[in-house]
Amino acid sequence: MDSLTSYSTSASKGGPAGEILVRKSLISALRSLYNVDIDVATSDGEMEVMGKGKVYDLYVFDPWTWAGPGWVLRKFVEDERKVVILDFFGTEISYVNRNGGIGGGFDVGRNVLRAYPNKGRDGKGTFLGFFIPQDDIGEQEEGINGAISGGVMDVVGGGVGGAGGVGSADGENSNNAKIVIWGKDPKYFTPRVLHLINSLSDLPAVTLVTPLPKNSNVNLPNSVIRTGHLSKAEYHSLLKSSTHLLALGHPLLGPSAVEAVSYGCVLINKKYSGEEDVKGFQTQHDYVKVYVPEKNCEYGGSGRGEMEELEEVTNCMGKRAEMGVPKEFRWLDYKARVEGIFNRFLQ
User: Fold this and answer.
1) Are residues 45 and 194 in the same domain?
2) Domain range holding 222?
3) GO CC annotations (predicted)?
4) R_g of the chain computed on alpha carbons
5) In whole angstroms, what is the distance from residue 71 CA to residue 67 CA?
């Protein structure tokens, strides 16, 4: 299994962490189900040394690391039917297998594993997902005690600490809205998004919080709280004390939306227009739209102007959600999917 150091380094600085969550969830389930030894490579060189040093029952790559020079399957893989690819971003199969680097023995439909049941831009692959520990939100999950290993709790839970002064729901007026603006890259703050944020900041009883660094050059209203990079525990604490997540991205494919609805936020979910290059997606997060509609509120779409979008988002602020992990991302459901997928490799 691969886990390139660049992934962890990026996540520690506020970058994408979805690939780490998917991988560590899988490690926990495989060890719980099969008691297997798992070697994790942290670089291309280490992967080559491991691959040449022994024969494995299973090779777990991502859409980029399965290939060696020339974009062909790594030479140490003696049987391509032993390969699975963890996909976190809805990558098109034609991209994964560009230049025909994986041969006819590779079953695309079974061996490309998706983060969500909505299977990416081309509708292919198998839903694997990840899991969110329920104990952190006060739910009990049968069968999970002692099963977590491989550092998953460091990524998806593990207690809630202070959230860097971003506030708490305790004692707050239940009519107030606290909106987390989830977008860590300045490129997401387009003129249209900035217009929406500025308009929301003028509304009474609304608190806006963003993980943008305090020294970011994005021109936000002074009332918007900038937390900078948060640890997972701090981020979860922030979600617990908030009412909504307004996520930026095109589309949103990491774990943020599922974490938000698990910790009691309503997802303010952008609808796409026909002109936008989001092949296969109706909204920013189709999983929440389809599977968790009670925690979903949509805005935007074809023909919507800035004022119409503002009105729709304002209406969303009246909707509330309770904490609870969606069924598909609970430990036992996740573990059952892992067993259904990996029995053919490891039994």
Assistant:
1) no
2) 162-326
3) Golgi membrane
4) 21
5) 5
